[in-house]
């Protein structure tokens, strides 16, 4: 069975039809996103367990921010899963909906949560938080790396636009440097993606050595 690759651009079907790989991408996205959300909930549970003992006000504010954006991530997760389930059902992906869902995941989840986690752990590097932070950061790194594959497939990753098989190299380069509003949004989302990966790697490095015991006599900063 060969790979069927076609671009449908009409009112009835406006999407990228690519089977069987489209199902593989959808299933991997399903598992990666689910593990990502579960890891965030695990971290929230551990933070809530020790929040009353936090000594740093910055860490406390970061913890509440983490709770808030984890709640938002649950709604974004549902939005993304609707796209995944529709892809699995119809064996075809709506490109606009998929790009929107993945962009929302990045802007509302993958950038704020690692940033808040970095603020929290650098200001409150507790031994009790090190393992959950390390574990969840690795899961998030895998999810973000897979996100690059997803965006490349959706032709929404600016550095890979010259590889678009629909046009020749000259036309692809021209499109890369024609900065329409759509392409500017793409670049902003891609920058957020790379930024999220960098922050997650920083969190992995910070938590890999474990935390330190916090003296209960320390005053809040």
SSE layout:
Blueprint: E1 4-9, E2 14-19, H1 21-50, H2 57-90, H3 95-110, H4 112-123, H5 127-153, H6 169-176, H7 181-208
Antiparallel strand pairs: 1-2
Helix pairs in contact: 1-2, 1-5, 2-3, 2-4, 3-7, 4-7, 5-7
3D architecture notes:
Keywords: Membrane, Transmembrane, Transmembrane helix. Helix 1 packs antiparallel against helix 2 and helix 4 packs parallel to helix 7. The chain has one domain. The termini are far apart. Strands 1-2 form a two-stranded antiparallel ribbon. The chain is built from 7 helices and 2 strands, in the order ββααααααα. With 221 residues, it is mainly alpha-helical.
Q: Count of DSSP helices? A: 7
Spatial arrangement of strands, main beta sheet: 1-2
Radius of gyration, Cα only, in angstroms? 20 Å
Strand segment tally: 2
Class based on secondary structure composition and strand pairing: mainly alpha
Q: Profile the largest sheet.
A: 2 strands, antiparallel
Q: Residue share in helices?
A: over 70%
- The residue-averaged pLDDT reads 79
Quickly count the domains: 1
| Low-confidence residue ranges | 1-20, 217-221
Q: Separation of termini?
A: 63 Å
Please write the string of helix (H) and strand (E) elements: EEHHHHHHH
- Shape field: elongated
Strand content: 5-15%
Transmembrane segments: 24-44, 56-79, 129-149, 184-206
Keywords: Membrane, Transmembrane, Transmembrane helix
